């Protein structure tokens, strides 16, 4: 069976924050319709990898190709218009905007995004609280808002940075269900996670990062047989 | 008729002067707030840009015969473009640095611009007359209301609230507010934030120029007209809270009125009352009356 061409191909990616060299040649692929996670300890370079793809780190080198376009020299607003959307770890809900304004903020970059109606069906709380100040929502609701607002835009590749961090188990389950639902609707998702038990419930494949490099790739089906190795990688 | 032993004529006369001053405080501090919010630049060139607005109106009349009404549009556009060039060539290099650098640069620009104009035109005022439609006035019984002054108060209120509406109630304003909080993320959503910053600076400068045109028939056109005013406007901005839109408008008009009444009841303090209030506000609420503590 011929492999589908990757939607996102990252090759020898290096990135710097000021003088500190964070990524030392990251290489991996994400194919269309896949959910892929980046696992690894704190400081392994997972978040920086997402930010480098999105074009919001200080300096980067290497190659990031998305849907036939080379991203490495483009500013982040151009990258967004090619169809990539980013949900940051700190969620980035705007305090001076209400829930509805937060939801409607990112411009629709391509056709095919979820309608507001569909988003409200997925996250009913956001409809009830649409007039509230964005940062008055609970942590779980803010995370839903942060994911919801990038579903509207028509972006095909979603970069989610630790969407389950600090959330109650019931909310984590809801976010897991949302990710599986998005996958079934054809979204491609690159997920950064520390919690591999959660990652195992949503992902097709996992890449393990250490010291600014991808050091291993594990298919989700093989996860059980690689548990010992994974424990060692993640230090859990 | 008297109120607290003061003739109503004098009281309402000072109230009107207070509102006029307040209109200029509000327009200028609004521009400063919009600029500071997004650019983190304390625009010390604001007074010079206000003066340039008045001069563009003066030149338009002298050189091309264009009168007051076209100048209300022309001066903000011309001076706004000057601001855009300033932002693209100089200010944009300072965003990563401390506020102090932006303040020093814009202060230097103000000195250069004011120096050039003073060299050319001296420091005595050049006359500029209000358009025929706005001359004369109304006798309200308790006071005489000059038409032009009423126009300045009403028009600046309209401009202030239109600006407030755009920033607080529209999509464009939502981009602006969001970019004030987290420009990196807003740009990652696909918004051209650098262009938005340039246009915002141009808009803030255009507001100053508009105030300059409005001021020309009242205070004459003078190279140092902005240098005197800007110090008071900065006090107004500190009292209202830097970066707050509604705060700038309310504080601008409010302090103008307070200053006017001080002239009636305790004239000795009329030049210092705003600075006394500033000191008191800084003691009690260092972020300003409407400012968010950061």
Name a few traits of the molecule:
heterodimer, A: 236 residues, alpha/beta, Rossmann fold, six-stranded mixed β-sheet, four-stranded antiparallel β-sheet, 9 helices, 10 strands, 33% helix, 28% strand, globular, B: 294 residues, mainly alpha, ABC transporter involved in vitamin B12 uptake, BtuC, two-stranded antiparallel ribbon, 11 helices, 4 strands
If you had to describe this structure to a student in words, what would you say it looks like?
The complex is a heterodimer of chains A (236) and B (294). Chain A is α/β, with parallel strands linked by helices and 236 residues long. Chain A has one domain: 3-Layer(aba) Sandwich (Rossmann fold), CATH 3.40.50. In chain A, 33% of the residues lie in helices and 28% in strands. In chain A, helix 7 links the parallel strand 7 and strand 8. The longest helix of chain A is centred in the C-terminal third of the chain and has 16 residues. The N and C termini of chain A lie far apart (37 Å). In chain B, strand 3 and strand 4 form a beta hairpin. Chain B starts with a strand and ends in a 10-residue tail after the last helix. Chains A and B meet through helix 2 of A and helix 6 and helix 7 of B.
**Helix amount of chain A:** 25-40%
Number of domains of chain A: 1
Low-confidence stretches of chain B: none
What do the pLDDT scores of chain B average to? 93
Helix content of chain B: over 70%
- What integer is the average pLDDT of chain A? 93
Can you give me a brief rundown of this structure?
Chain A is α/β, with parallel strands linked by helices and 236 residues long. Chain A has helices at 46-54, 76-82, 99-104, 116-122, 124-128, 139-151, 169-184, 196-202, 227-234; strands spanning 8-17, 20-30, 35-40, 59-66, 69-70, 84-87, 157-161, 188-193, 205-210, 213-219.
